[in-house]
Design goal:
heterodimer; A: mainly alpha; Rna Polymerase Sigma Factor, Chain: A; 2 strands; about 5% strand; B: mainly alpha; rod-shaped
């Protein structure tokens, strides 16, 4: 962490809300992006971002300044989203009729037509993954984090990250093939 | 892969300044709530905005109303029982003799000092009924008197008693004892 950032953090720790606002404005875009990749819903992502920074404020004293601040933010946002993902996974059901499928849900992504571009199809399919696989797929393939960093965020081994990532990609590929999007 | 690149982009964050303001507001409230700086009025408004608090207050009001209604019902029931008891006592307390005395009193009060008395038909009927009952009782007593007492003296009421005969009977201790026993 740079000295400048450390100074801002120290100010925020002492209760300076202006310093904390600087931290929020610096990181809110990236936190929002991560939340959106996990939840695939703009409003949910916005709410999760807000809650994330409230938790940051409350737990700022527990942050180890020798570690990366963004990794700590990832941990918080992933924990926030994990429960939502688990609930959504339990109630979600996917029905296939060859080329079209629908998923019970209310995200704005799901409301778009099936003939949207491939990225959106992948996003839709990834929502059918188990929560951990989905998180790892989002952090690795969408947020481009290193495997070790992902392991640190989720508190699992690098091997477990690799394994989950492998199965996540495999399941997505399999669904894409079943639906005829890839040969 | 082009699709993956598209996947990596996310929709732009709308109104980032608004989001930052919301975050700071939420942080501000949680910060000052912990330090007790939030005003009492603000705290009250916030508490009342919670549905749990509203439901609890509504429940308390309904409970108080219910207690009040039950209390009133108990009081009314007791009043009703008291009234019935008073009515019963009043009815028991009025014997025929008491009624007769009352009516005699009524008769006297109707006497306006002249030779004529004005009473209503109902009171007259009561008086006549009471008079008839008394006559009957007297006849029964006299019969009993005749059977128990006069038969030993060989006297019958059908013959009629003279004043001397009656005087003599009333001086006879045996006869007096029998009258007493009657």
């Amino acid at each position: 962490m740079s000295n400048e950032n450390k100074a801002v953090l120290q100010k925020a720790l002492s209760g300076d809300l202006d310093a904390f606002r600087d931290i929020v404005q610096t990181h809110q875009q990236f936190v929002y992006q991560a939340a959106f990749h996990l939840l695939a819903n703009k409003e949910d992502a916005r709410d999760a971002t807000q809650e994330c920074f409230v938790r940051v404020w409350k737990n700022l004293h527990a942050f180890d300044t020798t570690k990366k601040f963004t990794t700590w933010l990832y941990k918080i946002i992933v924990n926030l989203c994990y429960d939502d993902l688990r609930r959504a996974y339990k109630r979600r059901k996917v029905a296939f009729d060859g080329k079209e499928f629908s998923i019970a849900g209310d995200s704005d992504v799901e409301k778009e037509t099936i003939n949207s571009d491939l990225a959106q199809k992948i996003r839709l399919i990834s929502k059918g993954l188990k929560p951990r696989q989905r998180i790892i797929f989002a952090l690795r393939d969408l947020q481009e984090l290193e495997l070790q960093e992902i392991a640190g965020i989720l508190n699992i081994s690098v091997g477990a990250v690799k394994s989950n990532l492998f199965y996540a990609r495999k399941n997505i590929r399999k669904k894409m093939h079943e639906m005829g999007y890839i040969s | 892969m082009h699709a993956i690149e598209d996947l990596k982009t996310s929709p732009p964050l709308r109104s980032p300044d608004d989001l930052a303001d919301n975050i700071l507001y939420a942080v501000h409230r949680s910060h000052f709530k912990n330090t007790g700086v939030v005003s009492f009025f603000d705290g009250m408004i916030e508490a009342l905005s919670r549905s749990t608090v509203r439901f609890a207050m509504g429940g308390a009001v309904i409970l108080l109303l219910g207690i009040f209604v039950v209390q009133e019902a108990i009081i009314l029931r007791r009043i009703d029982m008291l009234e019935r008891r008073l009515t019963q006592q009043r009815a028991v307390g009025e014997s025929p003799l008491t009624l007769l005395a009352n009516e005699a009193q009524l008769l006297r009060s109707l006497n306006n000092g002249g030779d004529e008395i004005i009473i209503d038909r109902k009171t007259l009927e009561k008086l006549l009924t009471a008079f008839d009952n008394l006559q009957l009782k007297n006849k029964l007593l006299l019969k009993l008197f005749e059977e128990k007492t006069l038969s030993t003296a060989g006297v019958s009421l059908d013959d009629g008693l003279t004043g001397d005969e009656l005087q003599k009977l009333l001086q006879d201790k045996t006869v007096l004892q029998k009258i007493h026993n009657l």
